[in-house]
Structures are given as C-alpha cells and as structure tokens.
Write a structure and sequence with these properties.
The chain is an alpha/beta fold. It is built from 11 helices and 6 strands. The strands form 2 sheets. The protein has a 3-stranded mixed β-sheet, with helices on one face. A 3-stranded mixed β-sheet has the order 4-5-6, with helices on one face. The mean pLDDT is 83.
Length: 393
C-alpha cells in the first residue's frame, strides 16, 4: 500500500534531493494522516460518548490532535519549499522544524486537558458500558495506527525527515495507548472494575511524555545540534579519499533545514606541492559535495611541511605524543620558532566536545611531556574544541 501511494501521488519519487519531490512526500504524509486520524476520531468519539468512556474519548481527542499535527506538518512542508529570497538567503527549510515544534506544543496542551478530565473521572467513577462495537473500533484503530507508523517511517527514511519520523513514533505510541484503553475496557467488563478514569490518566501522561520528547527533537536542530556522526564520518572519508590530502580538521556544519546544510573544513596538504595543483584538488572536493550530496562545502587549505626535515619530524613526533595522552587528540598548524635558548612549538590541539581534562590541565600535560623529551622545546598551544568529531570505528 505504501509503495503504491508513493508511486501514484509523487511524480519523480526517486529524485529525493529535489525540493519539489520532498514537498510531495510531506504533502502525501500529511493528507493520509489527516484522513486516517479524522476517521479514527469520529469513530472513537462516537463510541466514547455513547458508552460513557473518558479513556476512549481521550484517545479520540488524541487522534484529533494527530490530525491537527498532520495539518501543521502539511503547511510546514509547503512553507519550507519556498525558495531563498533577499531577506532569507539560506531559504525557508527551517519551517519544517517550526512545524514540528508547533505540533509538539499542541500535543502537550491536549495531554494536559486529558489529564484534567481523567482526574475528574477518577474522583467520580462510573462503570463503562461494554460493547463489541467499542472493541471493534479500538482494534481497528490499532491496526490503522500500526500501518500509519510504518507509512510515516518509510517516507521519513526516504527523505531523511525528522518531522515524519517523529510522526511515525507518535503513531507507534498511539498503538500502545489504544491497546491500554482496550485492555481496561475488557478487564473492567470481566471483573466489574472502574478503570476508565485511571486508564484515561495513563493515556494523558503518555501523551505528555511523547509531547516533551517531540519538543526536544524539534528544538535541537533549531538551537544548533551537533551534526550526525554518520554525516561527519561521510564528510571526513570523502575528503580523505582525494589524492594529496593529509588530514582534515575544524569541521563546522550549519543546518538551515532539510536540504539546506552548509559546511566548512580545513584540509591539510603538502606545503611543497604546487599551490595551483592543491587548489584544483580543493575545488574538486567542493564540487563533489555539491553535485553528489547537495551539501555546500567551503574548504580552507592548510599547508603542512612534509619534506624530510626538522619541522616534519617534530610534527609526527608531537602527533604521537598527544595521542599518548588521549587517542582522540590531534594537532595541526605547527610552526617552529627557534631562538638562542629555546624553540617555540606553536600549534593547535583539537579535543572532543566532552573531554575529561580542562584546557589548562591538558596544556600542562602536553608541555610536561614535551619538555621531558626535549627541554629546549617550549609549547604555545591553542585548544580547539570540536563539536563534529570523527566517531571511532
């Protein structure tokens, strides 16, 4: 069914890097979500009202909120597809994140209202009338939500959309909450227990928990979260695959929304190499990222002395020395300034975002280790804190 809907309603569905195609995926997910959730809301609200069940009515309102979420997501994808203009030179793709945040806030508000109604039901309990119609509606809801979870996950993975993946997770959560309501209905009928209010409260708390997670997931990219480790690894490996590249560091990724990501990095190449040849390699790398990954990359060339000589030997020795302190440490931009009494080693040391030593402690450790090997060497260290570290294999 999912493949059929994609092939039927999305033209050029394989061209996932296209803004138009991405918008079509979001539109399809939104329309399907609205239709399914409105039908589930109508069915559950009807049986919940007829048979006096607060938990079923709460679950119905949850479906209504899901329909509203699909509408917001639909509008978000539409606005995100707007091209860049003079006031927004990086495009409008972050509207997708804002739509996700709006959905999360709506979920929280509805969860609070459900909790209030459930507490009132707990204080004034009433036995819920059992009906096979109610059971059929709840079982049907579970089956529909299972399919919606699969549907949104498939589309979300296809276009790498955090909004659709969050919607898929929400549908999966709805399966659990509706299953709990069904369980309470059957158990209450068999043992004459008034579990309706308690189960409604459980559903409300579950919705609040899901809403809080959704808020975090949608706020992170807006606040500027660290790039995905897989993306960092892919960027690193592609740069290192080019001839003449000795190393890369200082990677920064800016996220302006899906399909609108920019990156910058420093690339080390031999100082002895012809500068025009090195520049040609840098141009090729930048073009490769844009044409094949849709990623805007700006690369700064760092010349590194590699010829057999004192600077080259010290660079390799110093790199091994800092790795002896911590295998994640790297150095770059080494310069040597010799004087009559001592030699300054001026370099940058890159540390991961979460590092156990303070900058002062790390500098002292390196200085002590260097002076132990050669008392004439005096270190002038700049510590770079990397938030896009290459993950260990």
């Amino acid at each position: 069914m999912t493949g059929f809907l994609i092939r039927t309603f999305i033209k050029d569905y394989t061209q996932k890097q296209s803004v138009k195609v991405r918008t079509a995926y979001g539109r399809l997910a939104g329309v399907v979500g609205i239709v399914c959730n409105l039908l589930l809301f109508a069915a559950k609200f009807l049986v919940g009202t007829l048979f006096g069940s607060i938990s079923i009515s709460a679950d119905a309102v949850n479906n209504l909120s899901d329909a509203s979420s699909s509408i917001v997501s639909l509008v978000g994808f539409k606005l995100a597809s707007k091209p860049a203009d003079a006031e927004h030179p990086y495009g409008h793709a972050r509207f997708e994140y804002l739509a996700g945040l709006a959905v999360a806030v709506m979920v929280l508000v509805i969860g609070l209202e459900m909790a209030q109604g459930s507490v009132e039901k707990i204080l004034s309990p009433q036995l819920v009338e059992f009906s096979w119609l109610t059971v059929a509606v709840l079982v049907g809801s579970i089956l529909v939500k299972l399919w919606l979870a699969h549907f949104n996950k498939t589309l979300g993975n296809a276009i790498d959309s955090s909004t659709l993946l969050a919607t898929a997770a929400d549908s999966r959560n709805d399966v659990l909450s509706t299953g709990a309501v069904l369980l309470a209905l059957v158990v209450g009928h068999l043992f004459q227990l008034t579990l309706d209010g308690w189960m409604g409260l459980f559903v409300a708390l579950f919705i609040l928990y899901s809403g809080a997670n959704l808020v975090k997931e949608t706020l992170d990219p807006l606040l500027g979260q660290a790039p995905d480790e897989g993306m960092v690894r892919a960027i690193h490996d592609k740069i290192m695959s080019y001839p003449g590249v000795l190393g890369t560091h200082d990677l920064i990724v800016h996220d302006y929304g899906p399909g609108q990501q920019f990156a910058s990095a420093h690339v080390e190449m031999a100082a002895e190499e012809d500068v025009m040849k090195s520049h040609d390699v840098i141009d090729s790398i930048e073009r490769d990222f844009w044409e094949n990954d849709g990623l805007h990359v700006v690369i700064h060339l760092d010349p590194v002395v590699t010829a057999a000589g004192r600077v080259g030997n010290v660079r390799h020795w110093l790199a091994d020395l800092v790795k002896g302190i911590d295998s994640r440490l790297t150095i770059h931009d080494l310069r040597m300034v010799e004087g009559p009494t001592h030699t300054n080693l001026i370099f940058d040391c890159v540390i991961p975002a979460e590092f156990p030593l303070s900058e002062g402690e790390l500098k002292q450790r390196i200085k002590d280790a260097v002076r132990k090997e050669n008392p004439r060497y005096f270190c002038v260290i700049t510590v770079d804190r990397s938030y896009a570290c290459i993950p260990k294999k």
